[in-house]
Predict the structure of ribonuclease H.
Amino acid sequence: MNTYTIYTDGACHNNGSPFAQAGWGAVLTNPQGDTLEIAGPVPEGQPQTNSRAELMAVAEALKQCKQPAPIILHTDSEYIAKALQGWLASWKAKGWKKSDRKPPEHLDLWQRIDQLLQGKKVTTHWVKAHSGILGNERADALASLGARGEKLSKRSRRPVEAA
């Protein structure tokens, strides 16, 4: 295993309501086979949406990839998968504007992700949510913890099964 394998997810309880609480979760296995599970809430004062939580999961996971090794990122968000597979570069080239000439939602996180991607080789895969893929199911559970306001950072020697 000479790569990072990452699964990310976001969750939002009461999405769309004034009482919404969002959280993110990620599971990553490093090139040595060690696994890190991380989770946290979307901070107060920021939009409490599932979309923002999904993006935070990607940013927080990429932040952990400090070794020069390829990254395989799995997400159940088609939007994030497509953005990382090409839209992001296009938005950046157009001054952070989409085809409708508006900036992408949560521009601050997209710019942060863009910075974290610099110098990294990332392959992004979309996975179907709730389809029994172990890494995705675990990221989903971690995101729910984050949406309840909990934070987690737990290391283990057990790699997550690949999709």
